[in-house]
Amino acid sequence: MTHPHRSRPSAVGTSAVSPVLAAGAVLALVLTSCGASDEDTAQSERAGGDRLVTSAEAGMERASSFGFDSAGFFTEDAVQEFRTQMEDSMAEGADDAEVDPAECAEPLAAVDWAPLLLGTDAARVDFGSETFTGTGSIEVASVSDGEDSERVDEHFDHVRTLVESCPELEFSRHGSDYDLEVSEVELDQLEAAESGHQGTIAYSWERGFEGEDQDGDEDGDQDGEETEVPEGAPDDEAHRGGGGTIVAQILFTRMDDDVVMVSFIGETAAGSSEFTEMAESITDHTLDSLEETR
Length: 294
Fold this sequence. Notes:
Blueprint: H1 23-33, H2 38-42, H3 50-65, E1 70-73, H4 76-96, E2 98-100, H5 105-110, E3 122-129, E4 132-142, H6 146-165, E5 168-173, E6 176-184, E7 199-209, E8 225-227, E9 239-241, E10 246-255, E11 258-266, H7 273-292
Helix pairs in contact: 1-4, 3-7
């Protein structure tokens, strides 16, 4: 599988699409796609119509202003492979995972979803930085019919259920036990979706091995590795991460018949307020581009 790249974004543990259960197979897919050569890129066009690609480029331009200087757009072949592997992994995850509390199993599996899975016009770009151990992503898709609209509405509802009813849970898969914390993200720039299906719903999750603290230490008595926020990002306290802990922050927005998802996944900095500010600004620039060409 190929997609255009300037350099390979760093990644840890999973892809920026924010899969909780379906992490492994999708990670392999994204890492493969990030290794494409410029010659391969020339043989396969970026996925998405001109309008969606232009909006993703606008979002990426804003991301680059925060120091994310490596990026790769998905091609049509990459999108098709992504859809196949995500759908297979999601089905496998729902069947294989043991979740406690049990009533959280359905929303946990259902939230493993992305705009690329709408099956309509869609574009995606992944991006990274040497100072952030993780990956950022912008996905843009169009709602083309009632079925698409229903799937988007369902995703809003699944996220709300997970945040409100399952803020802390445990799950086991492939012989490993995990702790998962899910929380709503407070927005400053974007309009929250509230109880409807227009606007932005924002949430974060932190997944670690059972019994491990947020720095990746079982006993909680050692500091994780200190990392930097990308140059140009809002400044705040130092961020730490390590061990097997993965953190993701996802902003999912619907504006009329356009859907935008901006996410970060990787070290603990990905769940911070600085990254919320960046995600909101990237989303805003992407939406502005879509609005201009509506």
